[in-house]
């Protein structure tokens, strides 16, 4: 009943709901040092001699597989675990920073402060509580591991080549803007050849990875929600990520609603935690 009422409210507000979540299964992308995904059938058929159909499965999965969230503790021993993340930190205005043209000749490109300036010149100041995502056009590579990690050996992390956020740009965001989420369309918040993960360490908060279909939403004017499981003492969680787009919004400044598949990694930033 609550679900029906919630959907009714969304309809009342005249929002289009766009699912940004990849299927969670055996083909989902995950970091090669983590475990993958397994599913076991507990029940599939008529229940206990009756004519009642019942289906039930058990799944075994790393928290960091497919569309998922990294809790603050993933890169910060003294930060929140998954169940401690305030729900309001998982929602915010969508900000999509498009750097597709810049990664064509440089697979190791990192987003700069100038890229953020370009977005603000077009759309205005990054709103408070924003979910800021990099769009590098990596979406058509998912779920091919060789193409996503941009290497012939996706089990060798030293061979990875993909773009991501630059340390200086993230430092500026943390100092001058109050955002909730930082994200990319690649397997890590740090570019493929990074050895010391400076962006992860800078924010060391919640981050959400492997979101799909980002090209379906505008670069400004949406609300994005990242609904994580409330796993006690978790270092992360699978998530259902979706965007709300006003049905009467002007999409002339958007990337339009094409159907490209998109790999995204996001990092949720909590200034409350940064100030502790």
UniProtKB/TrEMBL annotation:
<dbReference type="InterPro" id="IPR037175">
    <property type="entry name" value="KFase_sf"/>
</dbReference>
<dbReference type="GO" id="GO:0019441">
    <property type="term" value="P:L-tryptophan catabolic process to kynurenine"/>
</dbReference>
<dbReference type="GO" id="GO:0004061">
    <property type="term" value="F:arylformamidase activity"/>
</dbReference>
<protein>
    <recommendedName>
        <fullName>Arylformamidase</fullName>
    </recommendedName>
</protein>
<dbReference type="InterPro" id="IPR007325">
    <property type="entry name" value="KFase/CYL"/>
</dbReference>
<dbReference type="Pfam" id="PF04199">
    <property type="entry name" value="Cyclase"/>
</dbReference>
<comment type="similarity">
    <text>Belongs to the Cyclase 1 superfamily.</text>
</comment>
